[in-house]
Every structure is written in C-alpha cells, then in structure tokens.
C-alpha cells in the first residue's frame, strides 16, 4: 500500500496531455520496431494483438516474452515519457485551460484518435476490435439511460438494434448497391458516404418509434412488466425479420457498403457520449432521476412521470438503432440470430459490470467485456465460465458496478496538474484570499471523494 501511494504521488503531476504523449510514443515504438526488432529478439512469432494475452493462452511458454514485450513497448515508455514531459505538457495544458472547454476537448480527442488509429492500423484484427468496441460503447451508454438513470429493467435493446440495422441497411442497399433483392441502385455510389448519416438517423428513428410498442403498454403499469414486455418485443422483432423474405429472412441480409470506417464510428461514439451526457445532466435528466427514486413524490411535484419515462425510453432506443446501423455496415452482413438473447446478455453484462448511472462506467464496461471476451477466445468453453464468474464477483462486492453514479468532469480531467505541494499551496492561497473558485471547488470534491 505504501508503494502504491508513492507511485501515485510520483505521477500526480502528469496531466492528461502527458499520458497521451506517452501513449503516442509507445504506439510509435510498436509501429516501427515491434515486429522486426522487439518481437524477434523476444522469440515471439508476431506482434501481440491484445497485449500478448492471446499468445499467452495459446502457448504458455510465450508468457515471459509477452510480458517483456508489454514492458518494453508500453509500460516503460508511457511512464517515462509521461513523467519527463510533464515539465512542458503542464504549461501547455494550462494554455488549453484558457480556451473554451469544447475547444480543449476537441484537441484532446483528435490527439487520442490519432493514437487509436495508429495502434489499430497495425493489423486488420485490431481495427475490427476497435470498431466493435466503439459500437458497444454506444449500446451500453444508451441502455444505461433506461436501466440506470431511469431505474427500469429493459430487455429490448437487441430489438432496437435490429430495427436500426435493417432500416439503415435497406436504405443503403436500395440507393447505392446493385443488389439481388432490391435490384439496380437508384443513386451513384459516390453519394453514399454523404447520405449514410441520414440512413443511421432513419435507423435510430425506426428504433425510437418501435420503442413506443413497449413504452405505451408498460408504463401504464408498475413493477417488472417492462422487463416482460420488452423481452417479448425482442423476440417479436427477431421472429418478424426471420419471416420477412423480402429482406432476406433467416438467411440474413448482406452486401452493405463499407460506409463505416474507424473515423466515422469514432465520431458517432463521441457524439453519443456528448448527447447522452447533456441529456442526463439536463432538467429532463434530473426529473428522470427523481422519478426513479420516488415516482409518487415526483407526481406530487408536478413532474409528468409517464412522459418523462417515455421520452427517456425513446431516447435510449434511438441510439441503440444508430449502433445497430453501424454494426450492420461494419460486418457488411446481418441476420436475425445476431439480435437474440445472447446479444441481450452481452449488453446487460457490459452495463452492469461497468456501473449504473455512469457514462464513465458504461465506457469501462463496454471496453472491459469486449477486450476480455476477445482475450479469452482461445479458452473456448472456459471463456463462458470465467466471464460469468467475474461478473458474479463484481455483483457481490460492487452491486452497482465498478464505476457507478459518476459523471464525466471534462474540465477537471483535462486541467494542468500542479506540483506535489498542490494541496498545501491551495490552502495557503485560501488563507491569503487568492484561491480561485475552481480551486476551491476541486478541493471540496477531493475531500468528499467525488
């Protein structure tokens, strides 16, 4: 514990910009020397995909080499560069603090995406994993609006995904692809990337309208009826697309054009996080929390509880439909089996593992479950024993998830870090009457553990 405290103190002066710079250096090391030099001399057959986990599980003799690779490529460069660079990344972060917050956020996101793009570009498998993980973030954040902030238990997200996936796929196939089912394309393929966002919005709108079939009957009642009706809705949607031969039926629908490269999915994911964050921190979001905590008291305070719940439900369904549209165009193929009970279990695992009432928790849950699922793939059957056991332990010791009831504080996350004597200097500034309002708020949050 003493070592962990000293280690944390040692890097307490590193701003977010420093960590991003350290990560960039690590990715550049892997990009230029990972295969020809580092992997070769460590006896590894290729660059480890998921930090060497796949190699370790397939060939235990490779464990020392994989750990050595991670230390040489990632751990040591990131820590060293982050610490050394804090001398100039802190002043630079302080300059960004004087800019409007949205400008600073965009600068950091562009920097982060450059790193992510470079890391994923090393091989196609990484690109696919990153794409699917970003889509999972959209799905997890959107269901957290319903199951977390609204306090209900919905099982209909795979159905909303299916509506969005099939709607957006039909639009792009009819307009831009010479397809066996829909015939000759109506528009030139060059128009596709420009109209694709509207196809995604149409998929989201279809999911939002479909959610009314669940919301209208369920919100007239109380208790567990939403879970039962939403589960029935999922099976109804799955059964409907299985029997509609005009859209492929049980064989599925393929040939979707590649309109969802990594930059597009990243932009939609960031947009989803931003919009959902604004929603849950708005007056509507606060009303939603009030309805969740005590519906009768909310009614007495003139909050229209049924309207509030239906709005939030449709909002969450809309983003599930957008995620379904991206999912269809990443895989270029969909079938009804992709939106079954297995997909529901995966989405619920991500949201409850990460944490309820927390966008940060949703991101952590989506990334963790996706990466863990891929990392344990070599174990085959044992994978489905290990992941549920992890979830059981999380539910026992952290019933609301790893990171629950925590919102994103971009200003605090991206600010410059002061010297190790931060708190003493803050206290001295307070005594001399020179403490800023932000410094006082941050000290209060630190004491409260926020």
Count the domains: 3
Main sheet overview: 2 strands, antiparallel
Order of helices and strands: HHHHHHHHHEHHHHEHHHHHH
| Total number of beta strands | 2
CATH class placement of the largest domain: Mainly Alpha
Oligomeric status of the shown chains? single chain
Features:
mainly alpha, ABC transporter involved in vitamin B12 uptake, BtuC, 2 strands, disordered C terminus
Quick structural gist:
The protein is built from 19 helices and two strands. By secondary structure, it is mainly α.
Protein architecture, described:
Helix content is 72%, strand content 1%. By secondary structure, it is mainly α. It folds into three domains: 12-99, no CATH class; 129-397, ABC transporter involved in vitamin B12 uptake, BtuC; 418-448, no CATH class. It is built from 19 helices and two strands.
Indicate the topology.
Elements: H1 2-10, H2 16-41, H3 53-58, H4 63-97, H5 101-120, H6 124-149, H7 157-176, H8 192-218, H9 225-243, E1 253-254, H10 262-280, H11 283-293, H12 295-300, H13 305-331, E2 333-334, H14 341-354, H15 359-375, H16 383-397, H17 410-414, H18 422-431, H19 437-448
Antiparallel strand pairs: 1-2
Helix pairs in contact: 2-4, 2-5, 5-6, 6-10, 6-13, 6-14, 6-15, 7-8, 7-9, 7-13, 8-9, 8-13, 11-13, 14-15
């Amino acid at each position: 514990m003493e070592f962990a405290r000293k280690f944390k103190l040692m890097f307490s002066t590193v701003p977010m910009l420093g960590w991003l710079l350290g990560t960039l250096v690590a990715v550049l090391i892997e990009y230029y020397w990972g295969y020809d030099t580092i992997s070769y001399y460590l006896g590894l057959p290729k660059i480890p995909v998921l930090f060497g986990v796949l190699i370790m599980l397939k060939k235990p003799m490779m464990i020392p080499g994989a750990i050595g690779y991670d230390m040489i490529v990632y751990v040591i460069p990131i820590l060293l560069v982050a610490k050394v660079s804090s001398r100039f990344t802190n002043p630079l972060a302080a300059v960004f603090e004087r800019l409007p917050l949205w400008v600073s956020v965009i600068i950091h996101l562009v920097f982060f995406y450059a790193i992510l793009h470079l890391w994923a570009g090393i091989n196609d498998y990484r690109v696919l994993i990153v794409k699917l993980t970003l889509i999972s973030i959209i799905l997890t954040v959107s269901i957290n609006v319903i199951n977390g902030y609204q306090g209900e238990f919905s099982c209909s997200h795979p159905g909303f995904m299916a509506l969005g996936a099939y709607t957006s796929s039909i639009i792009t196939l009819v307009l831009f692809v010479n397809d066996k089912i829909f015939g000759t394309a109506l528009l030139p393929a060059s128009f596709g990337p420009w109209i694709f966002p509207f196809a995604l919005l149409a998929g989201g709108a279809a999911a939002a309208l479909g959610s009314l079939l669940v919301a209208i009957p369920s919100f007239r009642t109380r208790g567990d009826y939403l879970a039962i009706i939403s589960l029935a809705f999922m099976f109804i949607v799955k059964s409907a697309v299985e029997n509609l031969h005009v859209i492929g039926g049980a064989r599925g629908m393929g040939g979707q054009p590649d309109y969802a490269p990594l930059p597009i999915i990243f932009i939609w994911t960031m947009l989803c996080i931003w919009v959902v964050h604004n929603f849950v921190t708005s007056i509507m979001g606060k009303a939603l929390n009030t309805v969740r905590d005590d519906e009768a008291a909310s009614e007495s305070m003139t909050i229209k509880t049924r309207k509030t719940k239906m709005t939030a439900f449709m909002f969450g369904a809309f983003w599930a439909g957008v995620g379904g549209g991206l999912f269809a165009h990443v895989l270029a193929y969909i079938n009804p089996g992709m939106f079954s009970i297995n997909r529901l279990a995966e989405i619920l695992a991500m949201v409850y593992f990460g944490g309820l009432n927390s966008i940060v928790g949703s991101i952590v849950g989506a990334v963790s479950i996706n990466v863990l699922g891929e990392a344990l793939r070599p174990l085959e059957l044992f994978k489905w024993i290990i992941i549920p056991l992890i979830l059981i332990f999380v539910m026992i010791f952290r019933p609301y998830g790893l990171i629950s009831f925590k919102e994103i504080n971009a200003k605090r996350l991206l600010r410059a870090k002061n010297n190790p004597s931060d708190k003493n200097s803050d206290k001295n500034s307070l005594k001399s009457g020179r403490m800023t309002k932000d410094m006082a708020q941050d000290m209060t949050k630190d004491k409260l553990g926020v």
